[in-house]
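User: Can you recover a sequence for this backbone? Please restate the input before giving your answer.

Assistant: Of course. Working from this structure:
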């Protein structure tokens, strides 16, 4: 008789109905996880459908992903070991160490075990092990006593072996019955020379190594070509070269060279030091600014050039400095902006009564950046810290300024002075205990009050940035002005002050144009012949001969920008709403 067919049950996704048809817990777990694993149903949604906690579902899915169908069935858990109980080998080592050298402290034994077995051991655990384990009696020594080892290399090697095993210098000295100084000296020689330092050394007196050699003498003779450099500046310059001599030693060598015909410095007038009114107690508390005249040069202009510099009083570091053919407001603002952009704004700016420092535009910049402006007393230049450092500039740089025949050589000499001054030892920092002697290291990374670059552009409103084209020109207010071909692709700053337009790259002036402004004060009505300054950024490729024969104009008026042309057949976007339709109402409030 054929078996009667099984009654057909309609399929369902209702979990409450599905649970009535499930016959085993494994099948229930499978049906619970199937929509999540196969169809990617969110766990939170499945938890709401089934009433099973979401955390339980996540753990079941994780076990299924790791073990497959085996996770549906009960799995025997691995026996949990007691991690607090040390292995037998470590416990035996603890009691043997205490038996070998009873003066071991608990922490020293823990350190040795960690070094030997690469496992952290707490000193409390060491105490429990020593209290519960039996110590061996008459344990043999690993090494004989220091004076009992005949070979000197093996004596010192025993010290190194125990050190590598984690023993402290105190424990090694006590175990080998020798002095702690001998242990430290042996380890020092081993670290410096490896195992070659374990052999005996001769006790004969060593020849004294003199620091003053021919290399140092020759370096001092080269530096003494500038007769204004004294013993401290020579000492600082040698330190920058890696030759370390004291100022007194440098002074004796300078005197020896002068006796042999080296030039003598100019006589100076000594004066008693007076308390400085703007002595800084912290970095960027006081900045000092001034202009120094450099008249001894060979440019052939018959006019001085000007070194505009800003000094940080605490570290004596030059923050920004530039050689300029003019001492106008634009040249000063170029240097001031470079200092603020790199180092932030100071609390107080100190200067003399120069007009460029008291200009209305400069005063507005001080107020916007929160800089208090202070002025030294009339006829008292010594109150300005930068005057003292101008004396250092005189000694370090005037010798090179006097030999400069081109503007590029003059700027290169000034850049060398700027770097060497900031990175050589300064007399004011000779007594510091933190090994910071140069202005750059004393200044360090600390900055003043930061100002965003866009805010600086707004405050220094005489300044605009323009890209230099491949031909070396920029476009500014419908004029093409030549800057420098060697800086093609760079950004030049355009400064306009009164009737002078200055093109500058960083703090270096490229060209100056004399301009006439329109009635609105913005447009350029006329631009006269420029004054170009020689730089190190010249293009390596000269002008072609045929181009040189063509009349070349560094300033050329350009036509205004043409309005954008829109073709008549250009498609326009269809309106989003038909305002004439009856079913659309536009409210005046919207």
């Amino acid at each position: 008789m054929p078996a009667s067919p099984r009654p057909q049950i309609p399929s369902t996704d209702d979990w409450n109905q599905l649970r009535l048809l499930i016959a085993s817990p494994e099948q229930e777990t499978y049906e619970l996880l199937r929509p999540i694993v196969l169809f990617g149903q969110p766990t939170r949604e499945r938890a709401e459908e089934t009433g099973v906690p979401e955390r339980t579902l996540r753990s079941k899915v994780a076990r299924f992903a790791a073990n497959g169908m085996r996770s549906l069935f009960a799995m025997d858990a691995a026996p949990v070991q007691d991690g607090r109980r040390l292995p037998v080998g470590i416990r035996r080592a603890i009691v043997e160490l205490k038996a070998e050298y009873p003066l071991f402290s608990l922490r020293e034994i823990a350190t040795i075990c960690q070094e030997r077995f690469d496992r952290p051991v707490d000193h409390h655990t060491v105490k429990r092990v020593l209290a519960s384990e039996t110590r061996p009696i008459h344990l043999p020594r690993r090494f004989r006593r220091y004076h009992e080892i005949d070979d000197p290399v093996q004596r010192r090697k025993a010290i190194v072996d125990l050190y590598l095993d984690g023993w402290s210098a105190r424990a090694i000295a006590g175990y080998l019955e020798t002095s702690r100084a001998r242990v430290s000296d042996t380890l020092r020689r081993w670290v410096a020379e490896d195992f070659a330092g374990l052999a005996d050394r001769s006790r004969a007196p060593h020849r004294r190594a003199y620091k003053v050699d021919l290399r140092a003498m020759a370096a001092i003779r080269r530096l003494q070509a500038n007769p204004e450099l004294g013993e401290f500046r020579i000492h600082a310059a040698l330190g920058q070269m890696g030759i370390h001599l004291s100022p007194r030693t440098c002074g004796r060598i300078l005197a020896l060279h002068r006796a042999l015909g080296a030039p003598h410095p100019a006589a100076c007038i000594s004066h008693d030091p007076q308390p400085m009114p703007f002595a800084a107690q912290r970095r960027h508390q006081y900045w000092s600014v001034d202009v120094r005249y450099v008249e001894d040069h060979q440019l052939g202009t018959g006019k001085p050039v000007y070194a505009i510099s800003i000094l940080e009083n605490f570290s004596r570091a030059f923050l920004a400095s530039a050689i300029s053919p003019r001492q106008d407001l634009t040249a000063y603002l170029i240097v001031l902006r470079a200092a603020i952009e790199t180092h932030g704004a100071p609390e107080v700016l100190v200067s003399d009564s120069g007009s460029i420092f008291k200009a209305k535009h400069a005063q507005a910049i001080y107020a916007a950046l929160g800089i208090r402006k202070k002025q030294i007393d009339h006829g008292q230049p010594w109150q300005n810290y930068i005057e003292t450092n101008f004396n250092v500039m005189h000694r370090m740089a005037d010798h090179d300024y006097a030999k400069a025949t081109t503007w590029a050589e003059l700027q290169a000499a000034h850049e060398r002075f700027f770097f060497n001054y900031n990175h050589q030892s300064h007399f004011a920092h000779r007594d510091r205990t933190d090994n910071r002697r140069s202005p750059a290291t004393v200044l360090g990374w600390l900055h003043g009050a930061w100002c965003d670059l866009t805010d600086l552009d707004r405050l220094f409103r005489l300044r605009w940035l323009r890209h230099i084209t491949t031909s070396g020109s920029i476009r500014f207010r419908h004029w093409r002005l030549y800057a420098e071909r060697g800086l093609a692709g760079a950004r030049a700053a355009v400064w306009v002050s009164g009737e002078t337009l200055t093109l500058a790259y960083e703090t270096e002036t490229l060209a100056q144009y004399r301009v006439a402004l329109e009635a609105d004060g913005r447009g350029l009505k006329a631009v006269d012949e420029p004054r170009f300054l020689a730089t190190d950024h010249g293009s390596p490729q000269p002008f072609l001969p045929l181009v040189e024969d063509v009349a070349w104009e560094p300033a050329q008026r350009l036509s205004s920008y043409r309005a954008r042309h829109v073709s008549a057949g250009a498609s326009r976007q269809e309106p989003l709403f038909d305002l004439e339709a009856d079913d659309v109402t536009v409210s005046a409030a919207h």
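That completes the design. DSSP finds 20 helices and 14 strands in the chain.
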